[in-house]
Amino acid sequence: MRPLDQTLPPFELKTAAGEKRSLDDLIAAGPAVLAFLDGDVSPDPRLPMLRELGRGAAELGVRVAIISAGDCAAGRQLEAVRMATWLTDAGKAFETLGLTERRLGRTRRRAGVFVVDTGRVLRFSFSAVEPDQWVPASFVLSRLGRLLATAPPTSDAGAPEPSAVEPVGQQLPAVPVDAEMDRLVRAVGRRLGMSGDDLTGLATACRFRDLGMAIVPDSIIAKDGPLSEDEWHVIRQHPERSAEMLGSSPLLQGVREIVRASHEHLDGSGYPRGLRGDDVPFGSRVLLAVEAYMAMTQERPYREMLGMRDAISELQAYSGRLYDPDVVNALASAVAADEASAEAAA
Fold first, then answer.
1. Closest Cα partner for 216 from 139, 129, 107?
2. What distance lies between CA 103 and its chain's CA centroid?
3. CA 330 to CA 161: how far, in whole Å?
């Protein structure tokens, strides 16, 4: 990766409130996502992706900047819910910033998404060729996760409780925390009678379950089209790689086994080893069901989001086949408690 050309004219845009922002302002606290929107359309097909990107980036502590040449309904909407900072450019900085120019060999403005780190290095670049073409937020968030996993953490906010199973002095890789999944995993574990080291080990496994995705080539993650069998094989090996990346300490043996089997199904149809029944660690069964629930209840640009009850019904339909019935029941109880609390607070 080559640094961005620092001889370009200063990158100075304005917020909706008229405050000036430079590229260095945006990356001062860590990597930033820059989304260039060329044109203002309604309804905007890019908005669902940008909402998902804004939510995911916020969980990672990363700033998203929507940059437009003029008025931008999507920018206004995302700024209103604090998912992004909307920057406007009445001059030429949008065209001469250099992000699109360096990647595309041209100077004309192009809509796209870019990830820039604190060293002014372009880590991810996507340029939309057609007006309705847009990159899935998951691709951008995957790149952000990799970037943050290789950097020292800047804050302890939202981190799981210190693990009693971690050996003193062992430095685990820095991984962004999905606070909502962490909370739900703990809630389900408690309903299943887990406590103490078992519960903390489960939460630790939750945090590091997909660490091995960092070694999956970008060509596979961002492939436009179906994956080949060889490419799927690489994907299916990531739980093994995640477990290996946790090191060899005997104190983390239980965590490694949960992580290694976090994509196994009760009927043996999972991966990477095709375990079935009681051979699947109990903690792995918890992670599998909770992660499936989270995936179904989060907005995606390529499918409709399910409500809490519909997502639970979907899990119950596969209870005993893919998912552990006791885990599904505990998850349903935890979700019902969340729903009751939300109704009481309304």
1. 139
2. 25
3. 22
Strand partners, 3: 121
pLDDT tens-digit map of 34-89? 888 877 777 777 888 888 888 888 888 888 988 887 788 888 888 888 888 888 76
Contact yes or no for 204/160 (Cβ under 8 A) = yes
Predicted pLDDT at 272: 92
* DSSP code per residue over 233-264: HHHHTHHHHHHHHT-S-GGGHHHHHHHHTTT-
Q: Which residue has the higher pLDDT, 117 or 277?
A: 277
| Band of residue 193 on the pLDDT scale cut at 50, 70, 90 | very high
Residue 142's Cα: distance from chain center in Å? 6
What contacts 24+ positions apart, CB below 8 Å, involve 123-130?
A: 123/1, 123/31, 123/147, 125/99, 127/100, 127/103
Extents of the domains making up the chain: 12-149, 179-345
Q: Is-same-fold flag (12-149; 179-345)?
A: no
Does residue 276 contact residue 266 with C-beta atoms inside 8 Å? yes
pLDDT value at position 92?
52
CA atoms within 13 A on the CB side of 119: 8
pTM: 0.54
Question: How much is the CA Rg of the chain, to the nearest whole Å?
Answer: 22
Domain 179-345 sits in CATH at 1.10.3210.10
CATH code, 12-149 = 3.40.30.10
Pick the closest to residue 270 from 245, 289, 293 (CA basis). Answer: 289
> Which of residues 104 and 50 earns the better pLDDT score?
50
The CA distance from 22 to 196, in Å, is 48
Distance CA(119)–CA(128), nearest Å, equals: 25
